[in-house]
Amino acid sequence: MLEDKNPQRTPLEELGEFGLIDHLTKSFTTTQPSTIKGISDDAAVMEFGDLQTVMTTDLLVEGVHFDLAYAPLKHLGYKAVVVNLSDVSAMNAKPTQITVSIAVSNRFPLEALEELYAGIGLACKRYGVDLVGGDTTSSTKGLLISVTALGVAPKNDIVYRNQAKPNDLLVVTGDLGGAYLGLQVLEREKEVFKVNPNNQPDLAPYAYIVERQLKPEARTDIPELLKELEVKPTAMIDISDGLSSEILHLCKGSKVGCNLYEDKIPLDPQVISTSEEFELNSTMVALSGGEDYELLFTISQDDYPKIKGNPHLSVIGHMTEEKEGAHLVTRAQTKIPLEARGWNAMKS
Amino acid sequence: MLEDKNPQRTPLEELGEFGLIDHLTKSFTTTQPSTIKGISDDAAVMEFGDLQTVMTTDLLVEGVHFDLAYAPLKHLGYKAVVVNLSDVSAMNAKPTQITVSIAVSNRFPLEALEELYAGIGLACKRYGVDLVGGDTTSSTKGLLISVTALGVAPKNDIVYRNQAKPNDLLVVTGDLGGAYLGLQVLEREKEVFKVNPNNQPDLAPYAYIVERQLKPEARTDIPELLKELEVKPTAMIDISDGLSSEILHLCKGSKVGCNLYEDKIPLDPQVISTSEEFELNSTMVALSGGEDYELLFTISQDDYPKIKGNPHLSVIGHMTEEKEGAHLVTRAQTKIPLEARGWNAMKS
Question: In terms of CB atoms within 10 Å, which of A200, A211, A238, B339 comes out highest?
Answer without folding.
Answer: A238
